Structures are given as structure tokens and as C-alpha cells.
Amino acid sequence: METEAEDFVVENEIFSKIRRADQFQIDLLVIAIPSIMIIIAEMSFFTGMTKFTLWTHLVLLITLTFSTMIFNDKNKQHILSAFILLSLLRIVNLSMPVFFEMTLHSYILIYAPLAIPIYIFVKNQNLGISDLGITRNIKYYDLPLVLIASVVIAAGEFLIIKPSYLIPDLSLLNLFKLSIIMIFFVGLIEELIFRSILQTKLEEMIGRYQGLILATILFAVMHSGYSTPYEIAFAGFAGFILGTIYLIRRNLLLVTMTQGLVNILLFGVLPHIVIPKLNTSGLAMENTKLIVGFIFLIISIVAIGFIELRKKK
What's the whole-model pTM score? Predict the structure, then answer.
């Protein structure tokens, strides 16, 4: 009897291992197929095949939506919804008509609608604030790291794509508008999708570093619209930095601030002080004062917030 019982236990363990292995393979397919489709779509966009890109993302969007109805497992629904958000981001980006003369305002129309599916996803998955990385756990050394990472990424991207400015001048009002849009619309929405939702679940399903790498690859290919392999490669570097910050600190605020500052420098500050190649030292000095003042303003706000947090603790 004891031998039969032992054999029964061994058989159960074997079948349990087989089920776990099969489950892991299914998880891999659930992750791999949408990832490959997104990479194919974005590489098509890179080569100028915009219609093919749009249709590929549309087909993927519909397929993934039906797939969330098939799978009852929360993990699979979570990761499929993350891929849905990536396709939605590209579809809205390509389909949005131009309503404003300034390209800056179009970012609001592109990113604001994505807050609705993100909210629905968060409610359906019963995710709390801490699950999204929204925390007040900020260390004194976080701000210098954010500033250094932002400057390095912005300078590197600027050398590659040399973008035109999104604001007509470096007035405080224009810098304020640019900051609001780049931090609270572009930065927050993208980091919610790529870090809080996608990377977090990838880490749980395939491993911390594997999840970081795949999220980095997807972040990189989603920058294919610039049509230069150097930008995709550098976007991968930027995504790896942002992903590593999130992996270590699990703080959405930090990565949102980092990406926001990158975009402020990339599309607002650097085009005005580098591209024109100013010859007038007085004007150059005025621009420098504005930039330094703006940086100190951000540092002061964050420092005051940090001091207040420390007082509450």
C-alpha cells in the first residue's frame, strides 16, 4: 500500500510539472505572438509602409480584444491588454487629424484618449496605486539621477534626430505649457503603459531581466517613426535606462519625470539654443538664464516636496 501511495504521489508530481510546463509555454506564446506582430508592424512603419502598419495594428487590436474574452487567467488578460494599449497608441497616433497649427497641442489629443482604456484596464485588473508604482518613496539621490539621465538621453537623441522646436520661444509660459504636456500627458501615459503595466507583468511571467529586455525592445521599435536605425537603437538605450530605474525603484513618478524632462529638453530647449547657432552673446545669455532658472525651478519644487514627505514620515 505504501508503494502504491508513493507511486501515486510521484505520478501527481509528474503531471503537475507537465501542466506547469505547458502553462509556461502558453504564456510564452501569449507574449511572443503579439510582440512579434508589433515589431513587424513597426518595422513596416520604419520602411514607410504606413497603411500596412495601421492595418496590422488594427487586426492585432481586434484579435487581442477577443483573446481577452477567451482566457480567464488574469495574467494573460493583463499582458494581452498591455499589448492592446501599445496598438492603440500607434493607431491613435497615425489616425489623429491635425487641428492645431502647433504640433505641441496634438500630443494632448493623442495621449489624453488613452487615459480611458488605461483606467478601464486598471479597474478590471483591480490594480491599486502601489501596483502602478505610484508611491511617495523618493530618496534624496533620486533627483540628481533623474536630471543626469534626462540630460544624457536628450543630448543623445538630439544629435540623432535633430528635431525642430515645439514652442516658438523659451518664454516661461511656453516652457510651462511644454512641461505640462510632456510630463502629464506624454510621459505619464507612456510610462504607465510601458513600465507600470507592460514591464511589470512581463517580469512576473518570464523573469525580471527578460521582462526588462522585452519591454525595452518594444519601447525601441515604437520609435520607428523617425525612420533612422540610430534612433531606434538609442530609444532602446533610453528605454533600458527608464526600465532599470523602474526595476530598481518601482516608482512611476521618477520615470515619468525623467521622460518628461527628456522631451522638454529635446523638443523645447535644445532646438532653440543649438540649431540656430546664435551669434549674439546677449541673446545666448538670456536663453541660458531661462534654462538655468527653469532647471532650478524644477529642482526647488521637487526638493520642497521631498522635504515635506520627510516631515510627514
Answer: 0.81
Contacts of residue 136, Cβ cutoff 8 Å, sequence gap at least 6: 309
Mean pLDDT by 10 residues, the chain (313 residues): 49 50 80 96 94 95 92 89 95 76 80 93 90 84 88 90 88 93 95 96 92 95 89 92 93 95 94 65 48 51 51 52
